[in-house]
Amino acid sequence: MKKRSQNNRKLHVDTKKAVINQPIPYEMQIAARFLLDEICHDANIAYIKEQIDIALNNRDEETFHTYSSLYKQYVK
Q: In angstroms, rounded to a whole number, what is the distance separating the alpha carbons of residues 54 and 61?
């Protein structure tokens, strides 16, 4: 049986020649910004809901009103 020499080849990647300074296309910038906005929006809503639940469990009306007014701004 013959050994195939192609299977034993090692791939050489030159990391010093990586393309770093190419501009990012505008469409990708906008898509990334929208994705980041959506992730932040969802995280903020989750945090506010958690704080509302904690305020309800602790019967803290002042904190409840503070976070419920913030929550109203997100659900408009």
A: 11
Among 68, 65, 63, smallest CA distance to 49 is for 68
Q: Which domain holds residue 54?
A: 40-76
60 sits in the region (left: phi over 0; alpha: psi -120 to 50; else beta) called beta
The C-alpha atoms of residue 41 and residue 49 are separated, in whole angstroms, by 12
Spell out the per-residue pLDDT of the chain, length 76, in tens.
555 555 566 766 666 666 667 888 999 999 999 999 999 999 999 999 999 999 999 999 999 999 999 999 988 7
Q: Is residue 19 one of the residues assigned to a domain?
A: no
The predicted model scores a pTM of 0.64
Q: Which residues contact 24 (CB under 8 A, 6 or more apart)?
A: none
